[in-house]
Amino acid sequence: MQVSEVIGSDPDQFACPWCRCHDRERHLFMYMTAFGLLANLSGKRVLHFAPEKRLSLRMAALRPEEYVKCDLFPQSPDVKKVDLLEMPFEPSSFDLVIANHVLEHVSDDQQALVEMTRVLKPGGYAILQTPYSPMLHRTWSDPGINNERARLQAYGQEDHVRLYGRDIFERFESTGLKSLVKQHGQLLAHIEGRKYGVNEREPFFLFQKPF
């Protein structure tokens, strides 16, 4: 997948040798801290899809008013079974929705975006980290790519169902979300990617539901 210049996790610096947290957890925690989201989490309602073990512990420790962890195939009793395409939550229920490297796995990402926009409160934030290729003009998927080997060759991972192109930003805004996307150098200029094991080319995919 190097020929497509896919920007996402860094497999060469994936897991911390001390705490075993993944690079995508580290980077997201750094981004959220730098933007100020974590400092203002108290009293907020948070919805976290496919919650990463170590990141979710840090999130819970900040004591939001409600912290809902969910997954289509939960592996822990404290994670609710929720279909991202049809969520059982009322409109305008959450201040923050986190889907960190999730949408590339979802069969209908546009419906998922509709649902996340629906459950967000006006002014609420959505974090939508997702691998993408700036070489591609358009996001690409094909229903004929239907086995692990083909998906690995086409999308870069056996369980991905599409490869996002540089239209990803307008695609994510199509349901009414406003882009607040920031680059690593804008928020984390003091953080050397190689030292901290994060990919400096990965933006902070932050979006907001308008008031």
Tag the structure with descriptive keywords.
211 residues; alpha/beta; Rossmann fold; 7-stranded mixed sheet; 7 helices; 7 strands; 26% helix
Task: Name the CATH superfamily classification.
Answer: Vaccinia Virus protein VP39
Count of discrete alpha- or pi-helical segments spanning 4 or more residues:
7
What is the approximate shape? globular
Strand order of the largest sheet: 3-2-1-4-5-7-6
In terms of DSSP E residues, the strand content is 15-25%
CATH top-level class: Alpha Beta
Number of strands: 7
Fraction of residues in helix: 25-40%
Model regions low in confidence, pLDDT < 50 over at least 5 residues: none
- Major sheet description: 7 strands, mixed
Our Rg estimate from Cα atoms comes to 16 Å
Average pLDDT taken over every residue: 92
Order of helices and strands: HEHEEEHEHHEHHE
Terminal residue distance: 40 Å
Number of structurally distinct domains:
1
Give the name of the CATH architecture.
3-Layer(aba) Sandwich
CATH fold naming: Rossmann fold
Pairing-aware structural class of the strands and helices? alpha/beta
